[in-house]
Amino acid sequence: MSKRMGRPASLTRKLLLLGAAPAIVMFIVLMVFFTSARLDDARKDLADSSQMLADSLAPAVEYAVVSGNTASLEQILSQSLRRSRAQWIRVSNVVGEEVGFVSTDDPGNISAEETFDVFESEILQQPLDLGEDRQTEWFEPNYGFGSGALRVGTVQVGVNKAQLAARRQDILWTSLAVGFSLLLFTLLIVKHSLNSIVSPIHGLSRRVAKLTNREYEEVEVGLAGATRETRELEESLNALSRHLRNLKASRDETLASSEKARERAEMANRAKSEFLATMSHELRTPLNGVLGMIELVTDEALSARQKDYLQTARQSTEDLLTVINDILDYSHIDRGTLELDNREFDLKELITNCTASYRHVAEQQGLALSTKFIGDWPDCLLVLGDSPRLRQILAGLIDNAIKFTGDGFIKVQANFFSVEDNCLVLNCTVSDSGCGIPVERIHDIFNSFEQLDTGDSRSYGGTGMGLSLVQRLVELMGGHVKVETDIGKGSQFRFELPFELANRVDHVEAADQGPIKTGGEQARALVVEDNMVNQRVATALLRRLGFETDAAANGEEALELVRTNHSGYDVILMDCQMPVMDGYETTRCIREWEKSNGQGGTPIIALTADALPGTETSCREAGMNDYLAKPVRKENLRTVLSRWIRV
Fold first, then answer.
1. Quick one: CA dihedral 173, 174, 175, 178, positive or negative?
2. Which residues fall within 8 angstroms of residue 580, CB to CB, at 6 or more apart?
3. pLDDT computed for residue 463 by the predictor
4. Predicted TM-score of the model (pTM)
5. How far apart are CA 558 and CA 524, in angstroms?
6. Do strands 571-574 and 548-552 pair parallel, antiparallel, or not at all (unpaired)?
7. At a CB cut-off of 8 Å and minimum separation 6, what does 240 contact?
8. Partner of 158 for a Cys bridge, out of 88, 241, 574, 621, CB 3.0 to 4.6 A?
9. What's the Cα-to-Cα distance from 389 to each of 317, 335, 338, 469, rounded to whole Å?
């Protein structure tokens, strides 16, 4: 666990400590030094003055002591005591007897316990100097006058020690008062000096805070009381403010331009989506008529040449439909709007059928197309996934191999391995004996609209979206694609895709969930289509599937037929985009009419050329049961119808 960091000290406190610390140290040192000196001086002064008093009194009281004049002695001692700091003065003779004593207090009040400092001085009688020119010397030897001093007594001066202690205390308090006054004065000076330093720093800090809050106004550089460094910082901040203001203006311009560009891109994207929807509808509608009519004509009695012509026309139409589907799918993937289906299908059957659909094309070019299942494949391997997208991936690789292989073979090999109890990974390889791909161009073949050779003389046709679409679909389905190639020996494309195993116990055909005609009665169907060609195609396909069919050119006609047909319809094929009343509004009106009359919901299958994302969701929200994109093929129509009625 990390320690919690305390709040850092302010710059003012640090600078104040930096300025006050030397002053405090100096105060302590000087106070100790000068206080000690003053105490020594006071002690020495008291001792010197007391000793001087004793020394001065000794010759003054000599005559009084020698003559025994007690009154004169008392007078001298009293006057000396009044002008001194002593508490008492005592004079004793040569034998130690007290001959004089004076005190500031009553002598009886001076207790023996009191402690005094006593200063002494001897009273000396100096010899009489008669001079060198005297004539009479007759008396000197007889009377004992000589050159030495004669001691006649002692003077004692008593000073109370409490006086020195009081003096010492007075000196200490005086020193503390003066020292603290000087220290306070020093701190005030330091604080005043710090304000002149810290205040500009606080101003700079506020400037930086304003810059952080995107306030880029310049301020006038202060000259009075500002240091050179502070002025330089203020000038630098002003320059930074100008720079940031220019950057902000540039950013605002860039954002405005970006916003306009984004709006234009969104408008272009919406226009592209609308264009794709329109083109999808407009292209799929005539293709639906062409393919439907070709399929209807194929069922008639035709000569071999006519069948060949029809097969060529059908193949060309299928190729055009493939190009349209590739463009739409690539657009969906590019916008991230492509949704994968998750339905049950036979994995082995799908690979076999997809490969078989290209065998005739391969044989026409002299190629041997073969399929090989490696491992222990069951007869029916049911998985959950998007079977049309898997078919599209495999078809794209086979079509690419046929396109770039002049002669030789094309092999499709499939293997799978279990990952968990209910999951497997498909490993499928499409190899050919074609011309191969240069190593430096391997990464380019998966780019959109990219081909190995370009220009008017290129050997191979196509839009250049096949492999790019294959790669994106594989990655979208959770797999990956690898390619191995050798110039002149061919290429090998391998992809892996995960699938979930289907639960056979829960597998129920959707056809058992819809209404079923019993008792031999023929099922009735209603085709709602504004395009007459598509109307004829859908009607003909339904009749061949055993339906009795009615047709309506718009939603109002369909609603009227539903209301007036008492026997009712078993299924309704509903076009979405129609004049007068479109398919969405028509479906909602039919559902309201059925609800008001207590009738069951008739299966309504959307039949539309709009294959953009969201169309199927819109159809189901309007009340439709299923969705079928144009162009409609008989097998696709049979598959969708089988979910709702027995066909």
1. positive
2. 554, 555, 556
3. 40
4. 0.41
5. 14
6. unpaired
7. 211
8. 88
9. 20, 17, 11, 10
